[in-house]
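Example record used in the benchmark description.
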Amino acid sequence: MSSTTLKSMVDMKKRHLIIYLIIAALLVLNLVIILTPFLLLINNSLGSLFYKSLSPLCHQIDSRSICLDSFLKITDCIENKKFMDTTRSPDGIVIDNDQIKYKFPVCSRDVTIYLFLLIGMIYGIMKFGIDSDKITGFTLLYVSLVPIGIDGILQTLTEFNIILPFIGTYESTNQLRLLTGAIAGFACGMYLIPLLNYYWKWLLKE
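Model output (structure tokens):
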């Protein structure tokens, strides 16, 4: 076996390890996100720890988050919310209409971004292979980012009191945040591994 072939095999194993570590990290992150409201519901101290540990990743605004209620139903944390309400629950427990609800530790958009980022990566591996570096074009990625971009930008403009004609003030809904997050997350996940492989090989001049 030549030294070039041996080096190529070692580099391939390094790439695979990085990809597996990314998938493992996303898997752990998604498990923490999903488990947190259930742990809060049963008053397990891990729920509060998980909730606070993910605060650097998300604004955790109550009105833009989804919760688990006492009947194990996933619902808006604040059903009759005020316009542009930015209240944050410090411990992940929300009182809404005299009902106790338990928050997911990231906002509704982030819930589906992280989940579908993982699903998109796994789908990409199954469809194209773990060593794929073929990027046929970024059209799908660009198109998938349009809904989340429009939704987020319009809401941000309203937050800064910039009112567009024919649109007026705008605040998204959790249902729309979940949908746009899923679309963007899935597409980004599909592109992530080919991009990683492409730039790895480019840097090593393969």
